[in-house]
Design goal:
The chain is an alpha/beta fold and about 375 residues long. It has 2 domains: about 25-180, Rossmann fold (3-Layer(aba) Sandwich), CATH 3.40.50.1970; about 190-380, Dehydroquinate synthase-like - alpha domain (Dehydroquinate synthase-like, alpha domain, Up-down Bundle). The protein has helices at about 25-30, 45-50, 50-60, 80-90, 100-115, 190-210, 215-240, 245-265, 265-280, 285-305, 310-320, 325-330, 350-355, 360, 370-380; strands at about 15-20, 35-40, 65-70, 95-100, 140-145, 155-160, 165-170, 180. Strands 1-8-5-4-2-3 form a 6-stranded parallel beta sheet, sandwiched between helices. Strands 6-7 form a two-stranded antiparallel ribbon. The protein starts with 15 loop residues before the first strand and ends with a helix.
């Protein structure tokens, strides 16, 4: 297992984690414990049509919570966050909840952070803003994922899209006060989205396991998450109402969020963030497409004696946990390449140049521009 026991690590987890089928029933009491004027960020039409909306709103009303619903229709961008924060201030919101996929929860996080703070979120984003820190604490946030992929319910950052970039709003106080991980919320997730989200979780687990900042805690979480995904992802895709498979994937996703929040990620996420800034490539699709190629590049470099050598054993542990090699596991699920979203070989240099963000810094090997270009060329 990766991580020296004599090293340094810290844990910043949601103070309350409620896991299990049917636990969305606890949303009302959990929200009421933090405030009475709720901004509920949801997945839009799917949430309204699922039958969940009526139940959730009724439970919130019973708990004495006044609710303002904010549907999210796309990955959150700067304008959407700024508009939602203005709405939250006008509505005197004092608590935020997000029920949806990773983009929904990221929007909820960003809005919880920005309602009490002045200016545009652009000023606070890593790498593109002015480096401004939130002077006021974010509003309390409760997160309930409806997909099993990002683990955003356990992390301290929200990924926001801008003109030609995707960057994080990051603050330890953005970790949700409570996470409700209810596998029943994921059973209506269609097969394609189940595969994409699941591969996002697998990527996060492998990259946190092999990261330069891996610790015994994140290593143990990552391996147990990979074991769950290895036995469950294909079943969840093929039989969406298999609650055991959905529970395993919900656990894999949550554990990936905890692991990445404390260990960091790697080259796949560095490249995926750059791709998503230039082209409409869904983050989960980019990760799934890049994972086997980037893992092979890292392994080849490690076997040649470069980089952080414990990561080589970690890659072997990952394959053992999955039950087969990384490339073989990824091959179960067809993912479109960046070329299907408009990228050409001529775009490779600018994607490589934009990929050297935070995730790349914890990759176990310092890959050259040429090696990153080769990964992208194969992914096209």
């Amino acid at each position: 297992m990766t991580g020296e026991t004599g090293g340094h690590f810290e844990l910043n987890l949601p103070p309350r984690v409620v896991f299990g089928p049917g636990e969305i029933k606890q949303l009302g009491p959990l929200v009421a414990g933090h405030g009475k004027r709720l901004l509920l960020v949801t997945g839009g039409k799917h949430f309204a049509d699922s039958g969940l909306a009526e139940k959730v709103l009724a439970d919130l009303g019973t708990a004495g919570v006044e609710t303002v619903v904010l549907p999210a229709t796309a990955e959150p961008d700067v304008d959407a966050v700024d508009a939602a924060a203005r709405k939250g201030r006008l509505e005197r919101i004092d608590v935020v909840a997000g029920i949806g996929g990773g983009s929904v929860i990221d929007l909820a996080k960003a809005v919880a952070g920005m309602i009490p703070n002045e200016g545009s979120i652009m000023e606070y984003l890593e790498g593109v803003g002015s480096g401004k820190a939130m002077s006021n604490a974010p509003l309390p946030l409760v997160a309930a994922p409806t997909t099993a992929g990002t683990g955003s319910e356990a992390t301290k950052n929200a990924v926001i899209r801008g003109e030609g970039f995707k960057r994080s709003l990051r603050d330890p106080r953005l970790v949700p006060r409570a996470a409700i991980v209810d596998p029943e919320l994921t059973v209506s997730c269609p097969p394609g989205l189940t595969a994409e989200a699941g591969m996002d979780a697998v990527t996060q687990l492998i990259e946190s396991l092999t990261s330069l900042k891996a610790s015994p805690v994140t290593g143990a979480l990552a391996l147990s998450g990979l074991e769950a995904a290895g036995r469950a992802l294909s079943r969840a895709v093929a039989a969406g109402r298999d609650l055991k498979a959905r529970s395993d994937m919900a656990y894999a996703s949550f554990s990936s969020g905890v692991a990445l929040a404390h260990a960091g990620l790697g080259a796949v996420h560095g490249l995926a963030a750059a791709l998503g800034g230039f082209f409409p490539v869904p983050h989960s699709v980019a990760c799934a497409r890049l994972l086997p190629i980037a893992a092979a590049a890292n392994i080849a470099a490690l076997e040649a004696g470069r980089g952080y050598q414990p990561a080589l054993l970690a890659y072997r542990d990952a394959a053992k946990a999955l039950g087969e090699g990384i490339r073989e596991f990824c091959g179960r699920f067809r993912m479109p390449g960046p070329s299907e979203y408009g990228m050409t070989a001529a775009d490779i240099p600018r994607v490589v140049a934009a990929s050297r963000g935070g995730s790349m810094k914890t990759n176990p090997v310092e890959l050259s521009d040429g090696e990153l270009a080769a990964i992208l060329r194969e992914a096209l």
